[in-house]
Structures are given as structure tokens and as C-alpha cells.
């Protein structure tokens, strides 16, 4: 066998998974384009804002994970794609709102002007409501599932959005983020504003596939770990002067009490690695036959810019200020978030 052929065989599993991922991403974008089509005429600014806001180039991490997990559990029906698109529509709606001047006051999202910056705050607010209601309607009307299961799926998504999830987390971040906070308070806020949608995606995938309780328990733990990993990565990248375009505003966390501000950059990076290891371990437990998903998670959730220069704080020091002078040891997230139980780390 020639060396090139041998190397091709060695890399074929990774290549096959990459091809599978690309095909799935195209399916998701294609279905989103059907659900949120471009406007029929130039005057339809609401239609333009919805289409552009949902279809703007993005990672599609939540719907990709949801479909990959669901299919690995045996759910091959087209219904899974619609459920994943509903989750992505809710995520897009949250970005419409998060970027507004009364929230995070961001002007850039996914490499483009934020919806409120391009179309106005009125359209951003109304568009977010339209997307959330359309997502609920989509879940409630999917074919091939019983009425009871559809009701359970709607309930899961509602809980992820409402006072137990995104809304409560964003409220706490806005009202409490400028003051010193305990580790436990920051972690629970992060779970609500970021982790809740990962939890909903995994729970909806498991329910639609009628997974057993042991599998669903492992997926719940994986979702919790991924939510914390995603927020840590976002907070770490916020203060980096990265050569890689961020696609969104930088240094939005200056003056905020984040876990990075509390723990320091090095401890936060270690915590990110720990959460990813935990997520991989739990995913391997839930999906033992799908190693590709487990390996992709680490790549998708790792820092996109390897050690880069820190952005300078208000006093010129290259570190997060956040209003917190103390540095605390790396804490166990299980003490902060109910339901998170760290399993044995799996080295890959």
C-alpha cells in the first residue's frame, strides 16, 4: 500500500465525520431558509431582518449538536431537523435582544451590523418575539410525534426561554453583573443565560428518540458542562486581541464580574478544559458508538485563538478588572449548579 493511501485510511474517519457535519449544516441552513424566507419586496424590513438575523453565517452549534445527538440515539425522522431549527430560532431571537442598547449595547454580530443597528430597535424587539413564537409553533406542529410528546417538547423549550432560563439569566447578568458576585452566583447565571438552551437541545433530542433515563441523565450533565464551557470561552475571548476576526464586539465584559475576572485567565482556561473533559466523558457514556461527536465537541468549544495578547483594562494592566481584586482557586462547579456531578475524566 502506498504511503498516501495509508494516510488516507488513517484520516478517513475524521474526514467522513467532517463531511457528515458539512452536509448537516447545509440541511439546517436550508430548512431555516424555508422557515424564515427572504422578504418578497424591498419594503418588508421585518422580513429582511428575520431572514438575515437567522441565516447570518454562524457556527450552528446548538442545532448541530441536537441533530447529531438525536440521530446517534436512533431518531432519524425529519422531525429532528425541525426541532433543531426551532432551537436555533430561539437562539437567534436572544441575540436580537442581547445586542440592543438597553442590554449589551453591541453593534456587531456574526461579522455584520447587529439587527437593531441596521433595522432599528423596534424591528429587533418585534422580530425577537416573532421568532420565539414561530419556534414554539413549529415544535407544537411537527409531524410524526404524539400530541403528548409535542406538549412536552414545547414545555422544555418554554422553560429554557422563560424565568427559569434565558430571561432570568439575562436579567441577573444585567442587574448584578456590575457588582462583585460569588462564584456560585456567576455560575448559576451562566447556566440560565447560556446553558439552558444547550440543556433544552439535548433534552428534546433525547425525548424525541425515547432514550432511556441513564442516557438522558448523561446528556443533562453533558449539557451543563457545555453551557459553562461555552460561557467561559466567550468571556475569555472577549478580552483577547485576537488576529482572528471575532464577528462581534470585543471588551464588552470590562467592569463586569465574570468567572474570568474572579478566577483569572489561567484558572479560567483550566476550568474550560475541565468542563470540556466532563462533557466528553458524559457524551461518550450517552453515545458510546459515536466517537465523532465526542471529539468534535472539544474542537467546537475550545478557544478559537490560542494564546493571544490580553486587552488592556482601564488602568493599562493586561488583565480583567471586573471590579474584583481577589483571585480564587479553581472551584468545583458541582457546588454552584444543582444537577452537575463531575464524572471520571476521559482522556482522548
Characterize the overall form.
Answer: globular
Helix-strand topology string: HHHHEEHHHHHHEHHHE
State the CATH superfamily name: Farnesyl Diphosphate Synthase
Q: Briefly, what CATH class?
A: Mainly Alpha
Please give the order of strands in the largest beta sheet.
Answer: 1-2
Beta-strand percent range: under 5%
At a glance:
This protein is an all-alpha fold and 348 residues long.
Account of the 3D structure:
The chain has 348 residues and is mostly helical. It has a single domain (14-335), classed as Farnesyl Diphosphate Synthase. The protein has 13 helices and four strands. The strands form two sheets. A two-stranded antiparallel ribbon has the order 1-2. A two-stranded antiparallel ribbon has the order 3-4. The longest helix is centred in the N-terminal third of the chain and has 33 residues, at 3-35. Residues 3-8 and 305-348 have low confidence and may be disordered.
Amino acid at each position: 500500500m502506498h504511503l498516501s493511501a495509508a494516510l488516507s485510511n488513517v484520516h478517513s474517519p475524521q474526514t467522513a465525520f467532517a463531511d457528515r457535519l458539512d452536509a448537516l449544516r447545509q440541511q439546517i441552513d436550508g430548512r431555516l431558509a424555508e422557515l424564515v424566507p427572504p422578504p418578497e419586496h424591498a419594503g418588508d424590513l421585518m422580513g429582511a431582518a428575520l431572514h438575515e438575523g437567522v441565516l447570518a453565517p454562524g457556527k450552528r452549534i446548538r442545532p448541530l449538536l441536537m441533530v447529531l445527538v438525536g440521530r446517534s440515539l436512533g431518531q432519524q425522522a425529519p422531525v429532528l431537523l425541525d426541532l433543531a431549527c426551532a432551537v436555533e430560532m430561539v437562539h437567534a431571537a436572544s441575540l436580537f435582544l442581547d445586542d440592543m442598547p438597553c442590554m449589551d449595547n453591541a453593534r456587531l454580530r456574526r461579522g455584520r451590523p447587529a439587527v437593531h443597528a441596521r433595522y432599528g430597535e423596534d424591528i429587533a424587539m418585534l422580530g425577537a418575539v416573532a421568532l420565539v413564537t414561530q419556534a414554539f409553533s413549529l415544535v407544537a406542529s411537527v409531524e410524526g410525534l404524539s400530541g403528548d410528546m409535542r406538549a412536552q417538547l414545547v414545555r422544555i423549550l418554554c422553560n429554557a426561554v422563560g424565568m427559569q432560563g434565558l430571561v432570568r439569566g439575562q436579567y441577573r447578568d444585567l442587574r448584578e453583573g456590575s457588582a462583585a458576585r460569588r462564584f456560585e452566583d456567576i455560575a448559576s447565571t451562566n447556566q440560565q443565560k447560556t446553558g439552558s438552551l444547550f440543556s433544552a437541545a439535548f433534552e428534546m433530542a433525547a425525548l424525541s428518540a425515547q432514550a432511556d433515563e441513564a442516557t438522558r441523565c448523561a446528556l443533562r450533565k453533558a449539557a451543563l458542562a457545555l453551557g459553562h464551557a461555552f460561557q467561559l470561552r466567550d468571556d475569555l475571548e472577549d478580552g483577547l486581541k485576537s488576529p482572528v476576526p471575532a464577528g462581534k464586539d470585543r471588551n464588552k465584559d470590562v467592569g463586569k464580574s465574570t468567572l474570568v475576572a474572579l478566577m483569572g485567565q489561567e484558572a479560567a482556561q483550566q476550568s474550560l478544559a475541565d468542563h470540556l473533559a466532563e462533557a466528553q466523558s458524559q457524551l461518550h457514556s450517552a453515545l458510546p458508538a459515536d466517537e465523532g461527536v465526542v471529539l468534535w465537541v472539544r474542537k467546537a468549544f475550545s478557544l478559537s485563538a490560542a494564546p493571544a495578547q490580553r486587552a488592556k483594562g482601564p488602568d493599562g494592566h493586561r488583565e480583567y478588572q471586573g471590579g474584583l481584586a481577589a483571585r480564587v482557586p479553581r472551584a468545583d462547579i458541582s457546588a454552584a449548579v444543582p444537577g452537575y456531578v463531575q464524572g471520571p475524566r476521559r482522556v482522548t
